[in-house]
Amino acid sequence: MDPVVDDPSALRRTAEQVAMEAAEHLRMLRTEGAVRALRTKTSPTDVVTAADTALENLVRSRLAELRPGEVVYGEETGGDPTAAHWVVDPIDGTVNYLYGLPWYAVSVAAVRGGRSLAGAVVEPASGRVWSAAAGDGATLDGQPLRVGEQTDLAQSLIGIGFSYRADRRARQARMVAGMLPRVRDVRRAGSAALDLCAVAAGWLDAYVEHGLSWYDWAAAGLVAREAGAVVRVPGPPGAPTAPRGDGLGADAVLAATPGIADALTALVRDCGAAAV
């Protein structure tokens, strides 16, 4: 890794620039009527819109101009994850976007060796810009972020998500049903990236979901970690798999304020996370 070329602060600026440009383009696409489903992926309810593909093409084009020769791994057109320098989710929360709900985001992360060095998450509907650089903290619209100080799991607000596959959704629902009596409440917003950023801001005390992909958390997971959250994620695609030891299941993502991280991990495990 070249310490000059791969300076996290410089990569952060590039991620912010490209994500903001993509978010502005997405606002324009909505006014032009690009909100239509083109195809589905993992299930009939897991849609890809015309805007998803248009935005990823834009992000790839801009990164090629700003960081020539660097490999991009994206949700819609793939790439080589083992060689990736950038991980892109053009619209995280596509179903929300399709329905006109405002909770969706553009995510751009700079990675090296499977590790996030910098990232930006932009919420087009509000214009909010979340970003982070490894070792340099996280911000929302330029203001430093810090996770909440909750220490009582019973008083904690937990973000959750569900698979598009009916069989896995049923298992997740059973897990959440076991959690509900032991926390303040749960929220399901529909964008993993924004949920992780909400943990960073203290708007949620924690977030847990199974089955996410690298592009869902590559940028936002760094934002949460740099804001002080305990963050547990799977390895990137193609990385050697090893037992995690937390009993949550191989593809679980958990982010929590430090005061409840251990208690939440134990609760999720007790509610059947490994079987999800």
Task: Identify the notable features of this structure and list them briefly.
276 residues; alpha+beta; 7-stranded mixed β-sheet; 24% strand; 5-stranded mixed β-sheet; D-Maltodextrin-Binding Protein, domain 2; 2 domains; single chain; 8 helices; Fructose-1,6-Bisphosphatase, Chain A, domain 1
Task: Describe the fold and architecture.
- By secondary structure, the protein is α+β, with helices and mostly antiparallel strands.
- It has two domains: 8-144, Fructose-1,6-Bisphosphatase, Chain A, domain 1, CATH 3.30.540; 153-275, D-Maltodextrin-Binding Protein, domain 2 (3-Layer(aba) Sandwich), CATH 3.40.190.80.
- Helices cover 34% and strands 24% of the residues.
- The protein has eight helices and 14 strands.
- Strands 3-4-5-6-7-8-9 form a seven-stranded mixed sheet, sandwiched between helices.
- Helix 4 links the parallel strand 10 (157-160) and strand 11 (185-187).
- Helix 1 packs antiparallel against helix 2 (50-66) and helix 5 (192-201) runs parallel beside helix 7 (220-226).
- The N and C termini lie far apart (37 Å).
- The model has no long low-confidence stretch (mean pLDDT 92).
What's the arrangement of secondary structure elements?
Layout: H1 8-31, E1 37-40, E2 47-49, H2 50-66, E3 72-74, E4 86-92, H3 94-99, E5 105-112, E6 115-123, E7 128-133, E8 138-140, E9 143-144, E10 157-160, H4 166-179, E11 185-187, H5 192-201, E12 206-210, H6 214-217, H7 220-226, E13 230-232, E14 252-256, H8 258-270
Parallel strand pairs: 3-4, 10-11, 10-12
Antiparallel strand pairs: 1-2, 4-5, 5-6, 6-7, 7-8, 8-9, 12-14, 13-14
